[in-house]
Known about the structure:
The chain is of the alpha+beta class and 209 residues long. The chain is built from four helices and ten strands, in the order E-E-E-H-E-E-E-H-H-E-E-E-E-H.
Amino acid sequence: MALAYDMLPSPERFELKEIIGTGVCSKVYRAIDKEANNRVVAVKCQRYEKDMVSHINEEYRILRDYSSHPNLPDFYGVYRKKFTTAQPDEIWFVLEMCEFGSVIDIIRSLQAINKRISEEHIAYILSEAAKGLLHLHENNIIHRDFRGSNILMTKDGEIKLCDFGLSRDTKTSDGKRSTCIGSPSWMAPEVVACSKGDKNFYESRADVW
């Protein structure tokens, strides 16, 4: 079922604070939920534009149906921010706040003090992220943007796989896709091959690259 765009509530209950992440068409903020005892949450603000509707619908569906897994962020709801100016409205996805940020943030913080992440910690992060990825694959979802900046850590050390804007449902366990999409440095060879216009396909194993 597609997102009921015209029926979404307004997000006045959330007070946006600093930006904690940015993407091509979205920004992620730390925010306060004033109607839930000032709970700290993460809010992904996504421009609602025609060429982004399919991505927004798929991300909503995945968060709605599969976020109960311990290695995916909790999903608290979706809202519509209306603007009176000519700029497009925004869709706000409200998610669990992962206080330690992404794996990339953690590595850079350690490098700044001339330290490195240990092999034991790398193994733990990969193992937990793989559990989240396996959960998606078992439900016929390809993530298609599995990388360090989309692996988050909570203050309790829990690992959460995030950002499902490029994810797609393959419908069956052997379903395939043929769109060349993702982050260039992290795309599997079979995904890159789809850019050549030939009849190339890939399935969920491309996430493992």
